[in-house]
Amino acid sequence: MNCFPAGRNHGAGIDNVLFLQYDSNIITHEQVKRMCLNLIFPEDQQLFTVSELARACGVSRATLIRIEECGVLTPCRVNPETGYRYYNAYNAAQVGQYLLLQSLGLTREEIAEYYYQKKDGTTFLKAQREKLYRMLRVLEELEVRNRGVPGIFFSYIDLPEQTCFCLDAELSSPEEGERFFYKAHEQCIRNGFQLLGTEPLFGLSSDDWRIPSAPSGKPPKAIACIPVETRGKNDPRLTAFPAIHAFSGLAYGDYSMIGELSLRFWQEADARGIRPAGPARFYGLVAPYTGNHLSPERYCYRMVVPV
Q1: 302 CB neighbour count, 10 Å cutoff
Q2: With left for phi above 0 and alpha for psi between -120 and 50, is residue 305 left, alpha or beta?
Q3: Is 129-306 a domain of CATH 3.20.80.10?
Q4: For residue 192, pLDDT beyond 80
Q5: Handedness of CA 64, 70, 75, 81 (dihedral sign)
Q6: Domain segments of the chain: what residues?
Q7: 3-state per-residue secondary structure call for the chain
Q8: Is 233 or 86 the better-scoring residue by pLDDT?
Q9: pTM higher than 0.85, yes or no?
Q10: According to the model, what pLDDT value does residue 270 have?
Q11: What is d(CA 32, CA 20) in angstroms, rounded to the nearest whole number?
């Protein structure tokens, strides 16, 4: 069997095949295409009605129609007289792909645009990756809280870029810090900023949350950072923080865990040879102002440093 291409590019695919010679028989270009397609979709393939496909995929007829409307699903055949739709096994696989992407939180429009590569997906993928990192952080926190055993757990995490409303003060105790952060939260709302609820507030400290603090005994200067939606706001109280890959220490327990977290965090960082690429951050993930329905021994904290 010999294949004669239409041009010089012999690897151009079936669309560029002019004719095929099998023994002494010449097969035309259209016949070649039909043969290739029949290898994928044989002529004796079984077709299914809307109801049959819906039942096989575990969705409603209305859902199939909506998937069609966004361009992800195209019936194998449509009866021109009755308008009845017929589907094949390939269509069932399309529906499966749609449901998979939908289970990840993608909208119909996003699936249609990015699964079929109608748009550049760089920005979209960045947003999805941030969602994934956020979910991993939250799951780690929930696992620690569900375990309910006081302790400190080390890992590496990724944090997104964000803009924060910032206020500073000198703090001498965790309780004073809680009151300060609560007031900073109040002031942020009072000033009309929209809170970025998907990211927790955090604090920076002039001593990088190292305990004990400065030998002078003067309380370290702390900065409360409240993540907000910027919407083009140009305010001196807003500070932009870049996305970071960070070493993390996650602690569970009452206020006594804060000192232990600070001490063991830096010991572990030094033991791993970590060189900070920026200031350390402290997160009161579950504390009085975020979980006042919980007893203190169930508080949760996180300390991170960019690496």
Answers
A1: 25
A2: beta
A3: yes
A4: yes
A5: positive
A6: 2-40, 50-115, 129-306
A7: CEEEECCCCCCCCHHHEEEEEECCEEEEHHHHHHHHHHHHCCCCCCCECHHHHHHHHCCCHHHHHHHHHCCCCCCCEECCCCCCEEECHHHHHHHHHHHHHHHCCCCHHHHHHHHCCCCCCHHHHHHHHHHHHHHHHHHHHHHHHHHCCCEEEEEEEEECCEEEEEEEEECCCHHHHHHHHHHHHHHHHHCCCEECCCCCCEEEECCCCCCCCCCCCCCCEEEEEEEEECCCCCCCCEEEECCEEEEEEEEECCCHHHHHHHHHHHHHHHHCCCCCCCCCEEEEEECCCCCCCCCHHHCEEEEEEEC
A8: 86
A9: no
A10: 95
A11: 7
The verdict on domain 50-115 having CATH code 1.10.3720.10 is no
Instruction: Quote the CA–CA distance of 9 and 26 in Å, as a whole number.
Output: 21
Residue 118 — very low, low, confident or very high, per pLDDT cuts 50/70/90?
A: confident
The predicted structure's pLDDT at residue 231: 66
Residues 300 and 200: their CA atoms lie apart, in Å, by: 12
Contact 251, 261 (CB under 8 A): yes
pLDDT tens profile 10-43 = 444 444 444 444 455 565 655 555 555 455 555 6
The encoded tokens of residue 122 equal 């760089």
